[in-house]
Amino acid sequence: MVLLPVLQAVSRPDTIIARMIPERGLLDWTNGILQLVLLLLGVATLVTLVMLLLTVRRGVSRLTAIVDDVTRDTKPLLVAATGMVTDTREIVALLRTDVERFSDAAGAMSDQLHEVAEATARRVDDVNAVLDVLQHELEATAITTVAALSGIRSGLRGGARAFRARGSSPRSTRRRDAEPTDP
Fold first, then answer.
1. Which residues contact 179 (CB under 8 A, 6 or more apart)?
2. Are 4 and 19 in contact, with CB atoms under 8 Å apart?
3. What's the number of CA atoms in the CB half-sphere (13 Å) around residue 31?
4. Which residues, other chains included, contact 19 with Cβ-Cβ below 8 Å and sequence gap of 6+?
5. Is the dihedral of CA 147, 150, 156, 159 positive or negative?
6. Residue 126 to residue 119: CA distance in whole angstroms
7. For residues 172 and 109, what is the distance between their CA atoms, to the nearest angstrom?
8. Residue 150 phi/psi, 5° resolution?
9. d(Cα 114, Cα 107) in Å, to the nearest integer?
10. Cβ contact 4:17 at 8 Å
11. Cα 42 to Cα 36: distance, rounded to the nearest angstrom
12. In whole angstroms, how far apart are CA 85 and each of 43, 88, 95?
């Protein structure tokens, strides 16, 4: 087969070159049938592939339509959920601010209560000190008074004994002092 072009190139233009067609044998017929079968299988595969691609395309189109429908249907839900999340964040921020204020107020109140408790404790200590001094003074005054009364009582007893020893009673002495005497 390769020799034919070479022969034509070497020969003169008016020379006719005849080619002999060999007889076809069983192997040639089998080879031709196999090529035809392969061609038909290739076409069938190609047709099947095209049909598969068309089916996939229709499926993708349907899936796209379903996703679009779901997106369209859920968009208001997503907007509402986003609004709720935003509101929740605002509420949490407000609560956090309120808790911080409450915590600060409680801390300030606690500090003031500690100061008041300390001032009250100092005043109670001062009052206790005054009461201790007052109790000491009252005890000293009571002891002094009791001692003075005891001394007066002792003196009156001693004076009463002295008057009795003289023979007169203190009552008669008082009468004499109260009555005027004649000179």
1. none
2. yes
3. 5
4. 4
5. negative
6. 10
7. 79
8. -65, -40
9. 10
10. yes
11. 10
12. 58, 5, 15
pLDDT digits (tens, 9 = 90+) for 165-178: 887 555 555 555 55
- First vs last C-alpha separation in the chain: 203
Q: Can you say whether the dihedral through the CA atoms of 158, 159, 164, 170 is positive or negative?
A: negative
Q: Report which residue type is found at 181.
A: T
Instruction: Decide: pTM greater than 0.70.
Output: no
Contact 176, 166 (CB under 8 A): no
- In percent, how much of the chain has pLDDT > 70? 80
Measured N-to-C along each axis, helices 170-178 and 26-166 cross at an angle, to the nearest 10 degrees, of: 70
Q: How far is CA 121 from CA 17, 38, 115, 143, in A?
A: 139, 111, 10, 32
Across the chain, which distance is largest between two alpha carbons, in Å?
218
The confidence score (pLDDT) of residue 159 equals 81
pLDDT of residue 117: 92
Q: What backbone torsions phi and psi does residue 143 show, to the nearest 5 degrees?
A: -65, -40
Element (H, E) at 177: helix 170-178
Q: Give me the sign of the Cα torsion angle 149, 151, 152, 158.
A: positive
Task: Provide the token pair at 136.
Answer: 């000491």
